[in-house]
Amino acid sequence: MASTGGGPTLLYYLYRSATALIAPFAYRKVAAKLAAQGVSNERQKERLGYSSLPCPEGPLIWFHGASVGESLAALTLIARLGEHLPQAQFLLTSGTATAAEVVAKRMPPRCRHQYAPLDATSPVQRFLAHWRPAAAIFVESELWPITLVATRRSGARLALVNARLSERSVARWQKKAPTARFIMAQFSLFLTQNDRMSDHLLSLGADPDHVHAGGNLKAGSAPLPVDADTLSQLRDSLDTRPVWVASSTHIGEEQPVLTAHKALLQDHPDLCLLLVPRHPERADDVTDLIAKTGMSFARRSKGELPTKGIQIYLADTMGELGCWYALSPIVFLGGSIEPIGGHNPFEVAQAGAAVITGPGYHNFTETFPPMIAAKGAVEIHDAEQLAKAVSHWLSQPEALKQAQQAANAFANGQSKQLHDVVDTLIHELELDPKIG
């Protein structure tokens, strides 16, 4: 299908030339970061388009998700598409070592992972020449011009799913309207999270016939993995103490969480807070904040346990979020007191917990309002309201049980949209189910 958004612009050509010059320097930076995380030299070179795995026989569908959340959403779609397309092969790319580590443990059949090529002509061409995808599906906000244009020109059909662009990103693209239209024209399909995002894409020049509502694909993601031995050890350590979780907190959010917890201890002296910073590398700074409160704490990264007398357990590790959610019926999701955009409430609901959020959940505007209306979540604005919300559920077990059930029912209802998404992808990208 021919593009309808005009040809390449001068800005696109300038970008292509600039990235060709910058690519060697950019590679040094990303390779050093990957090396620091234990990634081998061979796999680092995947960022230059040098593949470390052979291309499989059969039609290949390429998915790309920048980081962990997007990659997990992609895995859900891959698993469902794999059921409909039994002879198709799948490639998942991402940009971070953390995402690679997480998806390696949850890879569906006929799927493999590589690091995405840098958005420069030579890496992208090497990548495409090796993998030859029949279709390419990008998750959320990955608009890399050279990658998109080269992939479309290779004959692959492109989709942007769970489409999400920040207000700042939309504003930047709107200032480059001809180039935005050209980039939008590379896609055969957009599946958006909400009407607001559909409007944004249309304002950038997306073809209205290609823009469809798809809901939030994270609703259909598989539950977070839980290590049974770890969970048993932590439950033994906590014994019968009540627990609440503050998850994925960002700079500026730990302080109100700690203030709320200190207030909660007055009426619930055995209460333990599991504090999970979004970025574990901030653990030392968070430790300093905790120490200033005078509350006792232990750190997961040091192998310590939340034994009796420990008021705060700092969960400063990666890959154990499923355990933390399994330990508590009450979870505050960070990235929401500060205007970060919020984090995934479906993982919490699937684990059987009720959800507390701040007001800054603009990345989940299609999710939190109806979840709050269903009484599976509550919204707070400050430390005092956070303490009251947690205290209410701790003191009213029947109300907590109803909130847990409402959250779980809401998440299950949302996940049914995944069936429609799979059907739409197969039809719009011409992924003929008869190839199976």
UniProtKB/TrEMBL annotation:
Cited SUPFAM superfamilies: UDP-Glycosyltransferase/glycogen phosphorylase (SSF53756)
UniProt keyword Membrane present: yes
GO cellular component terms, semicolon-separated: plasma membrane
InterPro entries the record matches: Glycos_transf_N, Glycos_transf_N_sf, Kdotransferase
Pfam families listed in its UniProt record: Glycos_transf_N
Reaction(s) the record says it catalyses: lipid IVA (E. coli) + CMP-3-deoxy-beta-D-manno-octulosonate = alpha-Kdo-(2->6)-lipid IVA (E. coli) + CMP + H(+)
Active site: 70 (proton acceptor)
EC number: 2.4.99.12
Ranges where the 3-deoxy-D-manno-octulosonic-acid transferase N-terminal domain occurs: 43-219
Enzyme class: transferase
Pathway: Bacterial outer membrane biogenesis; LPS core biosynthesis
Molecular-function GO term, any one: Kdo transferase activity
Family: Belongs to the glycosyltransferase group 1 family. Glycosyltransferase 30 subfamily.
Task of the protein: Involved in lipopolysaccharide (LPS) biosynthesis. Catalyzes the transfer of 3-deoxy-D-manno-octulosonate (Kdo) residue(s) from CMP-Kdo to lipid IV(A), the tetraacyldisaccharide-1,4'-bisphosphate precursor of lipid A.
Protein known as: 3-deoxy-D-manno-octulosonic acid transferase
